[in-house]
Amino acid sequence: MVLKNEHSYDRRSELIAFDNTQAGVKGLVDAGVTKVPKIFYVPKDDAYSNNPEENQFSIPVIDLDGISKNPTQHKEIIKKIRDASEAWGFFQVVNHGIPQSVMDEMLNGVRRFYEQDTEVKKQWYTRDTSKKCVYNSNFDLFNSASANWRDTTYCNMAPYPPSADELPEAYRYLFTRCFENYTVYIYKVLELLSEALGLNPSYLNDIGCSEGLAVLCHCYPACPEPELTLGAGKHSDSDFLTVLLQDHLGGLQVLHKNCWVDIPPVSGALVINVGELLQLISNDKLKSVAHRVLASRVGPRLSVASFFTTGHSLSSRVYGPIKELLSEDNPVRYRETSVKDYADHYDATGIGGKSALSDFTI
Predict the structure, then answer these.
(1) Alpha-carbon distance 304 to 315, whole Å?
(2) Which CATH number is 163's domain given?
(3) Greatest CA separation found in the chain?
(4) Does the pTM exceed 0.85?
(5) 32-78: per-residue pLDDT in tens?
(6) Which string of b and e fits 201-232 if b means at least 16 CB within 10 Å?
(7) Which of 62, 123, 153, 247 could form a disulfide with 135 if both were Cys (CB 3.0 to 4.6 A apart)?
(8) Which domain holds residue 345?
(9) What is the CA radius of gyration of the chain?
(10) Which run of H or of E encompasses 25?
C-alpha cells in the first residue's frame, strides 16, 4: 500500500480515462491487466490490527427459527438483535424464511449481467443518478482518495419501482419476482429492530424507514495485486438499514474494537447492518460501524446489498432522534435532516474518508 501523498501523477486524467472506457474494473481484468493502476492504490493504514492470530472476535449469527411461535424464544432473539446492534452494528441471520432458491437466483442474475459483453453493458453505464438503474464503477470515483476494485449496478426499487424497460434484461427477473419474496422479509427486520429499541414493532416502518429501497449489485473482479487496493474502502452506510446477500468467496470485514473482523459466508445467511440514519434517529443506541471488502486474487466476488433509504428523492420528511428514546441522561445528540440532504452530504464525503454522521452532531 502507498501513502496518499505519494501520488505523483495526473490522477484526474487517469480517472477520466478509466471512466471513459465504460468497462469498469471488470473491463481491466478482461483486458488482462497484470498491475493495479495507481488510481486504485489505498492510503496506508496501520491503525488497526489485521493479524488473524490477534483477532479472537466472531460476528453474531442469530437463528430466527421459531421467533413467531414461541414468546420466550421471541424475547431472547430480540435481545440478541439488540445486543448485536449496540455492540457490533452487524449480525447475520439464518432461518429467515427466504428460500435458498431465491437467493441463488439473485446472485445468478448479478453474474449474468457482469458476464455480458462489454458493449452490451455500456448502454447502462452512466453517472446520472436520476436514472432508475445506474451501472458504473465507484459512485464517488472523483471524490474519494482511492478508487475501489469493484463495479456496481444501482437500482431504485421503492417507492417508485422501475418498469421492465428501465432494467437490463439480465436483472429483470431478479428485480421483480425475486424481490416480491425478499422485501417482505426485509420489512420484518425493521420490526425486530423497533422491538429491540423498546418501541412498537411497526414504529420504524410507520415513520418511513422502509419507504425507499435501493438495491446495489456489486462485482469484485479478481485482482492481480490485492495488497495494493481494496474491494470497498473503510466506510459505514448512509441508510437506515442494509441487508446483504453475499456469495461464498468472503472478504467482507467489520471494524470491532480496533480489529478488522471477517464476516464469513454462512450458508443460507443474510448480513444485517445498521446504517448511519438509524444511528442518528436512535440517538446512538444502535451503532453504524465501519466495514470494508478486501480485494482478492480469486473472483469475481458477487453480492446484492439492499439499502433502506429514499436517497436523493425529494421527500419533505425530516428525521431526528426519536423522542421516546430521549431523557435527561440521554439528550439529543444529532440535528434533524432530510434523507436527501444526508445522502448528498454522504456522497460528497466519499468512501474512505471520515464518517458523514459526525457532521450532524450537536
Answers:
(1) 25
(2) 2.60.120.330
(3) 62
(4) yes
(5) 999 999 999 997 764 455 555 456 789 999 999 989 888 999 999 99
(6) eebbbebbbbbbbbbbbbbbbbbbebebbbbb
(7) 153
(8) 4-360
(9) 20
(10) helix 24-30
**Distance in angstroms (rounded) separating the CA atoms of residues 321 and 278:** 9
What single-letter amino acid sits at 123? Q
Long-range residue pairs from 100-108, CB within 8 A, at least 24 positions apart, any chain: 100/268, 102/178, 102/181, 102/182, 103/245, 103/268, 105/173, 105/174, 105/178, 106/174, 106/178, 106/182, 106/245, 106/304, 107/245, 107/247, 107/302, 107/303, 107/304
Amino acid at 325: L
Q: Which of 255, 266, 25, 16 is nearest to 142 (CA)?
A: 16
Query: How large is the average pLDDT for residues 114-130?
Result: 95
Sequence letter at residue 35: K
Place of cell 456469495: 247
Q: Phi and psi dihedrals of 225, rounded to 5?
A: -140, 70
| C-alpha distances out from residue 100 to 72, 182, 251, Å | 28, 11, 21
Q: Which residue has the cell 424475547?
A: 75
Identify the three-state secondary structure at position 192: helix
**Tally of domains within the chain:** 1
Instruction: List the one residue out of 109, 107, 114, 111 whose CA is nearest residue 23.
Output: 114
Task: Please report how many Cα atoms fall inside a 13 Å half-sphere around the Cα of residue 342, on the Cβ side.
Answer: 32
